[in-house]
Design brief:
Layout lengths: L1 H18 L2 H11 L2 H5 L2 E8 L4 E5 H14 L2 E12 L2 E10 L2 E12 L2 E10 L1
């Protein structure tokens, strides 16, 4: 019985790491400047902070805001500076290189209902 309990514990632990890989999907979406792919990882509400405006948006509103941002600031690359995990959350800091300039970008994600979801995106010029 102890053998099965130990095996079950290991399987649950490994499956939680597999589900916590959402930050890689977000980085790929940022690199392509694709608001639709990015929105697939959003929580029900997302905080978006930009140099000219900041607000908490619904998932659909946030997608529209980012689509507008990416159309104005065509993405050329996204270079990761640092990624990490802390107490059930993930974050990524990088430089979003656009035709209009470089934005230091921070993405905060939280593990919720079996998935990693974006809760905040911050763009700083």
């Amino acid at each position: 019985m102890k053998k099965y309990l130990g095996l079950l514990s290991i399987i649950l632990l490994l499956s939680s790491f597999r589900n916590f890989s959402g930050i890689d999907d977000v980085v790929a979406a940022m690199r392509s400047g694709n608001a639709y792919l990015l929105a697939k990882n959003f929580d029900n509400t997302v905080e978006i902070i930009m140099p000219d405006k900041s607000n908490s948006y619904s998932k659909n509103q946030a997608e529209v805001v980012l689509k507008d941002f990416f159309s104005t600031n065509t993405v050329q690359a996204f270079a990761i500076i640092h990624k990490g995990e802390n107490a059930g959350s993930q974050y990524c800091i990088g430089n979003l290189i656009t035709k209009t300039g470089v934005y230091r970008t921070t993405v905060y994600m939280k593990f919720k209902a079996g998935n990693s979801v974006v809760q905040e995106i911050r763009f700083e010029k």
